[in-house]
């Protein structure tokens, strides 16, 4: 197809091969126009017409809903032109323009997506993870009948045929996702087609061309190591595995050491964390993303560093504090109990206190001497108690 094209206004570096259902081929909605008999083969993205005119100038235009007009000017006036791969599910309008020495002919062809509106799979997306795996998901079209079944076809590079999804993810029997373990042979730009069947209605297809580079989710950085000296901890990690050959600068990293730390890809995959001794136990987690696209990977497994002992001594202090509190509480309880006991002892002898108060004898010494003979059987403890009570009025 190379020599056909003089100018390619919208170059997407797509593969030329194309998936197509039989239905597609049957469907071309051609408007019968007198001179040219334009046909469109969506499988090959080829527009062709009857070669009856002696053209001086030939131009093919594909009007794409998202990409706009894509224009090919043919050098050697052939009677067909091949576009690069574009998604066709929204339909396209194709035009052939021919100048002859006498006239200018222009013929239009409208290509539409067969089937009922709203029956196509929606919210289609795919992502690659762990280098070799791809998951795609989609949802039933809102107008799709209950018995709809969808099928996913993936186009290999170099038109080496299509493959159907090897492992569907189902939702009550309906295919709504696909898991692929083998991505070999897929080109950077890969064509995805989801078509479908139903007893009652025609099901529209959905198609998409995805850049495998753009849908790759990186794995978290591996081989994280931490080496500490008196003042810093040097954290190192390995570049994440990736499908594409990527330089250090294509990555960016985020470290989580109690707080997030951004590290650019060109800093040799290391970070010097200021952490003077004694240092408590820390954990570090790292994740990565493309330098130009902050679609973050999952976090790595956390790696611990810092002293377990410090942690232990902190625990020690804690235990001591708890013990100390307990001892204080016990002492208080003891004192309180003694206070209660003293009260219960004093109850039967209120007379002593009243008598003392009435006599205005507030000197403990005197009280003590006066009471002592009267309370001959009282032991030391009891005497002490009386003495304390006698102090109360003095202070009050
Ligand atoms: C879906 O597309 C594939 C690949 O082009 C084709 O083989 C298959 O027959 C199509 N199925 C339907 C239901 O159109
Ligand atoms: C095209 O050119 C050839 C000779 O160059 C001539 O025989 C033929 O009639 C021309 N056809 C038309 C449609 O003009
Ligand atoms: C082709 O014909 C159209 C209309 O007559 C004219 O505008 C255009 O310049 C022509 N192109 C060439 C390359 O002759
Ligand atoms: C599809 O995506 C749109 C917007 O992203 C959302 O509103 C809608 O609920 C999704 N549909 C399904 C079936 O998931
Ligand atoms: C990909 O899909 C498979 C099959 O449904 C599932 O087991 C796996 O967890 C998915 N992986 C991710 C990363 O979502
Ligand atoms: C620890 O390493 C950092 C950076 O590697 C260095 O600046 C610092 O002087 C070192 N400290 C000690 C105590 O060795
Ligand atoms: C991580 O370590 C393993 C084994 O030590 C090694 O095979 C692998 O290449 C390393 N990965 C990176 C990204 O450095």
TrEMBL record:
InterPro entries: FN3_dom (IPR003961), FN3_sf (IPR036116), Ig-like_fold (IPR013783), IL3Ra_N (IPR040907), Short_hematopoietin_rcpt_2_CS (IPR003532), TypeI_recpt_CBD (IPR015321). The keyword Transmembrane helix applies. PROSITE patterns: FN3 (PS50853), HEMATOPO_REC_S_F2 (PS01356). Residues 1-19 form the signal peptide. This is Fibronectin type-III domain-containing protein. The keyword Phosphoprotein does not apply. The chain crosses the membrane at residues 317-336. The lineage of its organism: Eukaryota, Metazoa, Chordata, Craniata, Vertebrata. Keywords: Glycoprotein, Membrane, Receptor, Signal, Transmembrane, Transmembrane helix. GO terms for cellular component: external side of plasma membrane. Residues 220-310 form the Fibronectin type-III domain. It comes from Diceros bicornis minor. It is found in: Membrane. It is a single-pass type I membrane protein. CDD domains: FN3. SUPFAM superfamilies: Fibronectin type III. GO terms for molecular function: cytokine receptor activity. Pfam families: IL3Ra_N (PF18611), IL6Ra-bind (PF09240).
